[in-house]
Amino acid sequence: xxxxxxxxxxxxxxxxxxxxxxxxxxxxxxxxxxxxxxxxxxxxxxxxxxxxxxxxxxxxxxxxxxxxxxxxxxxxxxxxxxxxxxxxxxxxxxxxxxxxxxxxxxxxxxxxxxxxxxxxxxxxxxxxxxxxxxxxxxxxxxxxxxxxxxxxxxxxxxxxxxxxxxxxxxxxxxxxxxxxxxxxxxxxxxxxxxxxxxxxxxxxxxxxxxxxxxxxxxxxxxxxxxxxxxxxxxxxxxxxxxxxxxxxxx
Length: 250
What we know:
Elements (H helix, E strand, L loop, with lengths): L20 E8 L8 E8 L8 E9 L6 E5 L4 E10 L8 E7 L7 E7 L6 E5 H5 L4 E6 L3 E6 L4 E6 L5 H5 L15 E2 L4 E6 L7 E10 L6 E12 L2 E10 L6
Antiparallel strand pairs: 1-2, 2-3, 3-4, 3-5, 5-6, 6-7, 7-8, 9-10, 10-11, 12-14, 13-14, 14-15, 15-16
């Protein structure tokens, strides 16, 4: 049951704590009793106008009893934290997805998914598990080619950089297209993790992750790795992968 006309009560009314900040809020049944709950993302800031968020916590207020269940996230803090509710673990109850920005130049982000079924927080995903999913190597080849190697699966993909502008290519190749000495690349940690709807029905979601492939400088984007994941047997399992030049993947 979704309550369109109901406005969530201020979290300060049900959580007695000084200087608590509400970063985001949603309404939906996350406990599985068929009644909508009030879901908050709360924490602290150094000052009212600060943008850095600390002590980020998921707070679920039961839609019937106002009982509060909390889960503190295991990171120091970040920027622009946000909530999304959807069924990721296929139990027909909405789970709680949280995204938080690191605020750095690499556009690296942190993600969590929790089930609050029966008012018991259970972590379904954290960003570190996806960052550790595969080991990657990036190697420049002559004639404006780059090898992206999935060392975990022993699979190699090639990128063609010939479309890049002259200034960019001169950093990595000489006038004959030969690779300069000492140039190398890497795959950055998780930059994006988007819920994607599945054929299972309304409110059912899988995930699409993205990681940027860079050269020697953070701003030198070579391409992107996109991995599709679905929840099976207690964890998110990759079922498809696409690697291509930045901007050519849709």
